[in-house]
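Hi there,

I know you've been waiting on this one. I reran it after we fixed the sequence typo, so this is the corrected version. Both the input and the resulting structure follow.
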Amino acid sequence: MMDEISEEFSGTQEIREQHKFDISKLQTYMEAHVDGFAGQLEVEQFKGGQSCPTYKLTAGSRQYVLRRKPPGKLLPSAHAVDREFKVISALYNTEVPVARPYALSDDESIVGTMFYIMEFMDGRVLWDQSLPTIAKADRALYYDELNRTLAALHSVDYQAVGLGDFGKPGDYVARQLNRWTKQYRASETETIEAMDNLIEWLATTIPGDEKVSVVHGDYRLDNVMFDAHEPRILAVLDWEISTLGDPLADFSYHLMSWRLGGENFRGLADYDLDDLGIPSESAYAEAYCKRMGYDSIGNIDWYMVYNMWRMAAILQGIAKRAIDGTASSPQAVEQGKRARPLAEMAWALAEEKLL
């Protein structure tokens, strides 16, 4: 099953009809704005990505990646490729691995929507969290690199790298609850009682003493690119919902993979982690806390409920875009169907652990 998912999402294909544009206009733009650009431009579309259409560009001996806003009517503040470009540019010379940024354009006459161009990284994305293609002895090294990279992000001096205005420091979770509630209501296609319960309950139970860092917002195994041969991350991908926020909320979103499983979610909950050589949830969290200088992660179950709810709201947005025909991937329909079971899982966890 995971091989099928990997095949569906990996690699390139011809540009989908709804995402086509005049390549000659892009050629002219790159000749003027991308250092070192030369040759005849060829364009393919990557299969993966539910949100922003993403393309592989080839010219001469060099390759690039273009990410753009999808066409059509969009939810407010969604698909913020300009924010992606800003954070990648700021992090490029830090310990956080990102692709080299080249150019950002809000001229919609070129490809139809705002876009940016970055370096193409020749590595691999690992979709199956059990890491079946990695030797058992090496799997813990890949997870430790995931852990190290997120801790590096959360340790960046955001003021020093020019991201002091990248978000409002403080009250991140409250603002996220407000944002994703609005997004969820705007994309609601059916009544999900668990979502309604969570919206009401989460708003009145937010933990205090919030820390502030740059947060990715969607950090997971298949949003990083590893070197083709070793446990080294070449680039963290998909920064469109990054901002200044609570690093514990960001890390617990990533840690959510240890709680998810079954047919609906590509998580680790159904695996014998010792048998696979993959760290347990507690060991992984302990490694992160050691890197960050924390004693522990308080309120972990609350953060898990919050992140499951937030992910359900994101999946509902994908469902609505699939209905409207603006989703960038044909797998969006199946992704959208996962909103309800995830919301119900979140409410069940809240009832079991927190109410």
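Quick highlight: Residues 100 and 119 are 5 Å apart (CA to CA).

Best,
R. S.
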